[in-house]
Specification:
By secondary structure, the protein is an alpha+beta fold. The protein contains 2 helices and 6 strands. Keywords: Cytoplasm, Hydrolase, NADP, Oxidoreductase, Queuosine biosynthesis.
């Protein structure tokens, strides 16, 4: 992470792994205000660590920033770096949350991972840290639980 040399505005190759991916942060222009910033990744992809088959999820990331915001291009590249990464749903979801919390040190953070069925069973993973500041509106994630065809 380097504030001086952001990936924004220059050609950047897709990282080959989440460990290689660089996440950039930028100063929050309203550090005196509590508000929610949301990122939604409806086409997140990773690989099953056992079979190598692709897994798909709809991720929703909400945070109340303090001094820093995540730069969206770097987040997009970071999330895309999971395409060839083998990990279980729980690991992907929580690892993304922990990495962003380490980078941003937000007042509040939550990630919701709505994973499409594997073996006939959808797995939804939720993780959060921090207390939602009083008076902050945190909308529902907007993703319906899996219902199949029923």
């Amino acid at each position: 992470m380097t504030e001086a040399k952001l990936q924004l505005g220059r050609e950047t190759a897709l990282p080959s792994s989440p460990e290689e991916a660089v996440l950039d942060r930028v100063p929050n222009p309203h550090p005196d205000t509590n508000y929610v910033a949301r990122f939604t990744a409806p086409e997140f992809t990773s690989l099953c660590p056992v079979t190598g088959q692709p897994d798909f999820a709809h991720l929703v990331l909400d945070y109340v920033p303090d001094a820093w915001l995540v730069e969206s291009k770097s987040l997009k590249l970071y999330l895309a770096s999971f395409r060839n990464h083998g990990a279980f749903h729980e690991d992907c979801t929580v690892a993304i949350g922990k990495r962003l919390v380490e980078l941003l040190k937000p007042r509040f953070f939550r990630i919701a991972g709505y994973w499409y069925p594997r073996g006939g069973i959808p797995i939804d993973v939720f993780w959060q840290t921090g207390e939602l500041p009083r008076g902050v509106w945190l909308p529902e994630t907007g993703v319906a639980p899996y219902r199949g065809r029923g």
